[in-house]
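Dear colleagues,

For the upcoming journal club I promised to circulate an example of a predicted protein-ligand complex. I picked one with pyridoxal-5'-phosphate because it came up in last month's discussion. The inputs are reproduced below in full, followed by the predicted structure.
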Amino acid sequence: MSARPGAVTDTPPRHSSVAALLRAESPREPVYCIFPHVYRESTEAFVAGFPGRVLFAVKANNHPAVIRMLIDAGVRHFDCASLEEVALVDRIDQNCTKYFMVPTRIRDAARFAQERHGVRHFVIDHPAGLDKLAAEIDMARSVVFARMAVHHEAALADLSIRFGAKQDDMPALLHAIRNLGAEPALAFNVGSSVLDPSAYEYAIERTREVLEGLPFRLRLIDVGGGYPKSYPGFQVPELEHYFRAVADSFATLPLRDDAEVLGEPGRALAAPGMSAIVEVILRKDQRLFINDGMFGIFWELRYEGHERYPVRAWRDGQVHDGETAAFQLNGPTCDGTDTLPGAVELPNDVRPGDHLEFGHIGAYSLSGRTDFNGYYSDNIVIIDGAAEHPPS
Ligand SMILES: *Cc1c(COP(=O)(O)O)cnc(C)c1O
């Protein structure tokens, strides 16, 4: 295994199909497969459906080729959480707008983001953070979002615990931003994998209460990420219900005439167009050991949410099916937690040397993988056959 984080290239090798890849290479290490036309279709649909500016949350998938595909499909704005992410997007396309949307930053990161990469949008959630930000950037040419904490039970990962100001403290924060010369704006993030569109309506209602008490009008409201994706055993509402909930409740807000709503999808844009292929390395009855696990491809399964990805088995470069049985999957490391949480249905004669391909893997797998125990794969390829699809 090559334990060399950071060796990703912008232009991965191309194969016409997963079958061709498996026949040509019979890969020993895990392979991530990018399907450009899948990213194009899902991204175009999101951009067309969302009622405002779409900011891709880079942390969900930071592969340069994926970012390039999202840009080609119409994404022009990027939600970045570090100077590294800002620089990455800037290198790929200078004309895209980078937003530095995290209230905690390394010293001078905001300064360099503005000086070197022209970033104009930042976020704070406390007066102490505002003073630090104002010392690093030119407030007169910046938009500063005050982030409000909103708790709603439909959000699986509650992102309001560490970040966000209390609703009652929002007016003072917005006044303070304005008094320092920046354009004040408001942001919230209800969570990740938000299971009910009404969570956005609830948060926008809290926003309305804040806005109605202000003596000035805002232009930009950022409703964050959290648009979910369906996985096996984990069905969620269609995205259009979320778009409608945001559009209808946004329309009730007292805002400037040139107001815009911003959304920060990570998972919804990143998940669809990528699969990952692993090899079975040992079978012990109904327990399979595979060449990657909870510290790599399946990193995000440690969080509450879905337990499984769609899967298909391959043998000798062909899809292998037949009668199935439930298997427990284990990663290759020595750690006692390296077991996938959900049982996986696979052909009951599955054996070492077979490959397993998991679909919808593009969110928080590649970007979360570690080199724990020396297992790490930068084997990333593009599958460009127009009829090729990841398992779904
Ligand atoms: C993680 C994150 C997102 C993206 O979340 P998804 O659930 O992947 O859509 C968006 N905005 C902020 C501030 C985040 O922290």
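Two points we might discuss: Residues 102 and 299 are 22 Å apart (CA to CA). The longest strand covers residues 274-284.

See you all on Thursday,
B. R.
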